[in-house]
Amino acid sequence: MIRVKACPVGLLQANCYLAWNPETRKGFLVDPGDRADVLTAFVRENDVIPEAILLTHGHFDHIGAAKTVGENWKIPVFAGEKEAPVLQDSFLNLSGRYTRHPFTVKADRLLSDKEEFSLAGYRIRTIHTPGHSEGGVCYELPEEGILFSGDTLFERSYGRTDGPDGDHEEMMRSLGRLLSELPEETLVLPGHGPETTIAEERMQNFAVFELRERQYL
Predict the structure, then answer these.
(1) Which end of the chain is more exposed for a tag (fewer CB within 10 A), N or C?
(2) What is 3-213's CATH superfamily?
(3) pLDDT tens per residue, range 146-192
């Protein structure tokens, strides 16, 4: 069974996840948002050989250490195909607003909706979930029952939609898709805050009433 550990980093305490295969020690990082030194030590402490970096979206608090960590291990950065403009624009990725040194990141591989790939021996499915950002994605590991939900789905909440590339209607569609299509037992690992499950969010998420009104759930 896959191992996953969270390491909250940065101003907004974004969850960076380290996931790995306990047999081969191969793994990957999700959303290395800040403190490349801390994350590098985190990987080494867990004796993991990272194969790639997965970005759920391009906002500064989720990508700040991606370039440095990627260069440390010479591994590629994956992101949703529609998020490329955000990654490469310091206004859209908000680093120009919230950091002293604006920055950009270039993804090595851009993923389309429903595109599947394999890392560390695990099948990973890309789910395009616009709303918080235009090209945001979630990463599902179907056989492991895990969803890395970024800033789309939180415990009892969801990502804000008032940013430069946010869209509330798209967010409702994305939430409806996740809560309708994924198995109830799926463990949700969000970009901020504690883990949850699809079953819990179908009952308790703040968006449920609106989703039912809109017939998205």
Answers:
(1) N
(2) Ribonuclease Z/Hydroxyacylglutathione hydrolase-like (3.60.15.10)
(3) 999 999 999 999 999 998 889 999 999 999 999 999 999 999 999 99
